[in-house]
Design brief:
single chain, alpha/beta, TIM Barrel, eight-stranded parallel β-barrel, globular, binds flavin mononucleotide
Length: 327
Amino acid sequence: MLERKKTKIDPRVDWFEPVRRVLSPMAGVTDRSFRNACRPFGAQLAFCEFTAAKGLIYDSPNTWKLVDTLDEVDPVGVQLFGNEPEALASAARLMRGKRLDILDLNYGCPAKKVVKKCGGSALLADLPLLEEITKAVVQASPVPVSAKIRTGWDEESINYIETGLLLQDAGVCWVTLHGRSRAQKYRGEASWDAIAELVDALDIPVIGNGDVVDGESFSRMCEHTKCHAVMVGRGAIGNPWLFSEMEAADRGQETAKPSLDDILDVVEIHIADVGSLRGEVIGSRIVRKHIARYIRGFDGAAAIRRELYETDTAEEMLSILREMRSK
Ligand SMILES: Cc1cc2nc3c(=O)[nH]c(=O)nc-3n(C[C@H](O)[C@H](O)[C@H](O)COP(=O)(O)O)c2cc1C
């Protein structure tokens, strides 16, 4: 295994000790079926899409679907956002008896509709409130709590060390740092220097996040930062093989890229899984965008994507894909 800093692992999350590869929370992407698709390739911990604390409190069925983890065997995390300590604590209490290993607090979302209500990354500009929320949730949560942050609100207010120390004191068991400020959104390069500095500053584990897209970048991030684990987002969309690449890289090895047949085998399983969990019509709509990413770069992918968007059933999708396989 590539070298990492020795840290204090909360005994309640001893399963986290060997974890190196984490699937990030991604709204509209990391539903149960996508998490299921990533597991066999080595995603050791996977997060649900971020979830509004108030949606759970108001018992919105669509919000509850986001945290559907029933019978999920491997470590799974739920991520909450909001800006009212009592609402977040109440939502945490609603997790009692549910299937989850970690409750993550979202302090990084840059989206206007989240930030406008002072949630997500807006809390990086209001550390007293961030602290109050964290302490309230740590107290209320039936499972240990973690937090995901950015480097700061903007370049004038970079505060990841201060935020990380505050979170550590407030009782979270690890911090994930996406090495960009809120103002950067997804632009520019993620600062791995910032991740290295946070690893250095904290006694608890740090998960590094930002711009890891293959085994090589996984190794570079580990070497540069000595982080406990690496979280991947965009690089895993349509590419669960990324986790095998990371696993091999951790052992100093490389893996072969998947063939079109390998990819289509996984796509077929993904289609069946999403259909059984969400029903055929909704499932088809959900899975189409994933398929577009799985087949990106292959001959005729754009035309196939257009065809897929005109289908409503698994059978139609499978027949388009069978034709692609036979060419
Ligand atoms: C489509 C999309 C949805 C995302 N949704 C969330 C989310 O719900 N919660 C969160 O903490 N981060 C979210 N993110 C940010 C990612 O988790 C991750 O921090 C970011 O993409 C940087 O990592 P990467 O370079 O590996 O993609 C999202 C990113 C994308 C592209």
